[in-house]
Design brief:
The protein is an alpha+beta fold. The chain folds into three domains: 102 residues, Beta-Lactamase, CATH 3.30.450; 213 residues, 3-Layer(aba) Sandwich (Rossmann fold), CATH 3.40.50.300; 60 residues, R3H-like domain (Ribosomal Protein S8, Chain: A, domain 1, 2-Layer Sandwich), CATH 3.30.1370. Strands 9-8-10-11-7-14-15-16-17-18 form a ten-stranded mixed β-sheet, sandwiched between helices. A hairpin with a 3-residue loop joins strand 2 and strand 3. It is globular, with a radius of gyration of 24 Å.
């Protein structure tokens, strides 16, 4: 947790609220502070909400005291503290006067992608979905750090509200060596996405909250130019995205097709059917169900086609236990597999390769586990590849 950054946020709050937070044992779980004119201050922790009725109701002076200590509000009514990840959002009355503030804590948390890192480093275009506050932006930030620092790729973050890289011209260290392009207003995000590709030769572009047709079109342009795209979009599940007319192009678009009599008879369907227009912008979709559980659709085109035929495709479920153990539930057989032993095996093999300077092989594993094993080897500065044929396909680790 960014303790120094949290103290900077506490310092800009009204005195009574700041004193309460400094004495609270839940301070490290703080998520939001809400200050609304005429209401009692509200403190939102991860597991509880406290309304500070022992303090005075929030005054306009309290709100002005906070706004004088932060950067100017953008057109999206968001501001921040320089070189921190905290976000302050304003509520205005109909005359444009600020009458409410939501002060949201931002944290750069390493390790949030450890159980799906193989998906990120595969080079595929990845789309994250999930409800607000579930950690989508945190995972984008971690993806920027991993790809720029560990894999030395040219990464550009298109940061519309400075939520990924923090406020100020120098981005927060949470994005690693990635470059950051700020966006002057939300309605220019799509233009900056294209500008990033045309002017700065990135290998990876990371962008938060695709939400308009222009942004969906820009995303397709980036993908067609061979640049890896990692993004989030509005929606909780794949079904939300399919039913969103603005963003459905991200998954290839949907059109109604009239079949001939012979074709309809051959398919065993009605003459009017729904089909995918084109190939999806994104290869893989990750539904973030909670901070330690994700549902992954690896082949998004096949999943969409099956959905339009009325078939349901089960995702791969990955979970991280409290002790750090990772489990994977494969859709084909629904059996949960504990990968802890396989990862311990690859860790020991990496130690032996470093010590002996020659290649060694792990025990046979399925494709998902092999991806995790190879990622672990790369992290330790080694090379790895899959060898053999199923069901004996395995990972070989060797020195660089």
């Amino acid at each position: 947790m960014d303790l120094d950054g949290l103290q900077r946020l506490i310092e800009i709050l009204p005195q009574g609220v700041a004193d309460y937070l400094r004495s609270s044992q839940e301070c490290d779980e703080l998520q939001e502070v809400v200050l609304d004119f005429g209401y009692f201050p509200e403190i939102r922790f991860a597991q509880s909400i406290h309304r500070l009725e022992s303090l005075s109701r929030v005054s306009i002076e309290n709100i002005q005291e906070v706004t004088q200590k932060i950067s100017d509000f953008n057109t999206d009514n968001r501001a921040g503290l320089e070189r921190t990840l905290h976000r302050i959002s304003a509520i205005r009355n109909r005359h444009g006067k600020i009458i409410g503030l939501t002060c949201r804590v931002g944290r750069a948390i390493q390790g949030t992608l450890d159980f799906i890192q193989d998906v990120i480093e595969s080079g595929k275009n990845v789309l994250f979905l999930g409800p607000p506050g579930i950690g989508k932006t945190t995972q984008l930030r971690e993806a920027a750090r991993i790809l720029s620092d560990n894999f030395h790729r040219r990464v550009i973050v298109v940061d519309t509200s400075n939520e990924i890289g923090g406020d100020g011209d120098i981005p927060h260290s949470g994005i690693g060596s990635a470059r950051r392009m700020q966006v002057s207003s939300p309605d220019r995000q799509h233009a900056v996405m294209i500008e990033a590709v045309e002017n700065h030769m990135p290998q990876v572009i990371i962008v938060d909250e695709l939400g308009t047709e222009e942004e969906a079109a820009a995303a397709r342009t980036i993908a067609e130019r061979g640049v890896q795209l990692i993004a989030t979009a509005h929606g909780h599940t794949l079904q939300n995205l399919i039913k969103n007319p603005t963003l459905v192009d991200l998954i290839g678009g949907i059109q109604s097709v009239i079949l001939g009599d012979d074709e309809a008879k051959l398919r065993g369907t009605q003459k009017t059917v729904l089909e995918r227009k084109t190939y999806p912008t994104f290869d893989c979709l990750v539904e973030i169900r909670d901070r330690n559980t994700s549902a992954i659709y690896h082949n998004l085109a096949s999943v969409i086609d099956a959905y339009l035929r009325g078939e349901e495709s089960a995702p791969e479920i990955r979970q991280r236990a409290e002790n750090g153990d990772i489990s994977i539930e494969h859709p084909s057989h629904g059996i949960q597999e504990d990968v802890t032993e396989a990862m311990a095996d690859i860790s020991e093999i990496c130690k032996q390769v470093h010590k002996e300077g020659r290649s060694r092989e792990a025990a046979p594993q399925n494709e998902s586990v092999r991806r995790l094993q190879k990622q672990a080897a790369y992290t330790q500065g080694l090379n790895a590849m899959s060898i053999g044929k199923e069901p004996y396909r395995r990972v070989r680790v060797y020195p660089k």
